[in-house]
């Protein structure tokens, strides 16, 4: 079954860190670029970051640059998002999403189920 | 960044009737070298992740019913549901992927009248 299964969300205090994971199955993980997209409660969708199929190229939204790090382990079919220095405005459901092509077309044909990150004291 | 807007914010349509959602981009998303508009549409039902419906403005994703169609070019685009079904109740988002960062419209909520 082609799917992305996420884990790692939760409640965290401002300034602390959290790591999200996204495990893929049912397709050749190492041939696709992968993204993180978030959605604040009751709000729209915001792109966060992308990593190329081989992990060599990464881009970030300005809102998270310098605080978040995207990475992948193709031997484990797993995508990560390391989130440091979290702020209340980072509170959102975070989705991992597969890109249509390996180098990044920037539209998303498969999504994880989402994981809620709440940043609050 | 390219700003995406959608109209209306919400609409209610009778079962079997047509629903039309508009999307505008703050700059053209038409790439002249391949004459393609870098515009996608997603459907999001409550408690679920978004689902890709259409890409390249008008190409339906595999498995998407043909009552969903997309059109437009440049800065103005439309998603049409030709005959609304109960399972189409959702929020619909347009997204440009012409330039990084990819950006989404604010969404249009579709309900049954």
Characterization of the model:
The complex is a heterodimer of chains A (121) and B (113). With 121 residues, chain A is an all-beta fold. Helix content of chain A is 0%, strand content 50%. Chain A has no helices and eleven strands. In chain A, the strands form two sheets. In chain A, strands 2, 4, 5, 6, 9, 10 and 11 form a seven-stranded mixed sheet that branches. A four-stranded antiparallel sheet of chain A has the order 1-3-8-7, with no helix packed on it. The model of chain A has no long low-confidence stretch (mean pLDDT 96). The N and C termini of chain B lie far apart (36 Å). Chain B is mostly beta strands and 113 residues long. Chain A binds chain B through residues 44-47, 59, 61-62, 95, 97, 100, 105-109, 111-114, and chain B through 38, 40, 42, 49-52, 55, 61, 93, 95, 97, 100-107.
Write a compact overview of the structure shown.
Chain A is 0% helix and 50% strand. Chain A has strands at 3-7, 10-12, 18-25, 34-39, 45-51, 58-60, 68-73, 78-83, 92-99, 108-111, 115-119. Helix content of chain B is 0%, strand content 51%.
Largest interface, with counts of residues having CB < 8 Å to the other chain, equals: A-B, 19 and 20 residues
Based on CA atoms alone, the radius of gyration of chain A comes out at 13 Å
User: Quick one: how many beta strands of chain A?
Assistant: 11
Structural class of chain A, by secondary structure, is mainly beta
**Quick one: overall form of chain A?**
globular
Largest sheet of chain A: 7 strands, mixed
Quaternary status: heterodimer
Shape field of chain B:
globular
The average pLDDT of chain A is 96
Helix content of chain B: under 10%
First-to-last CA distance of chain B:
36 Å
Q: What is the helix/strand order of chain A?
A: EEEEEEEEEEE
Q: Would you tell me the overall average pLDDT of chain B?
A: 97
Q: Give the radius of gyration of chain B.
A: 13 Å
Which bin fits the share of residues in helices of chain A? under 10%
Helix-strand pattern of chain B = EEEEEEEEEEEEE
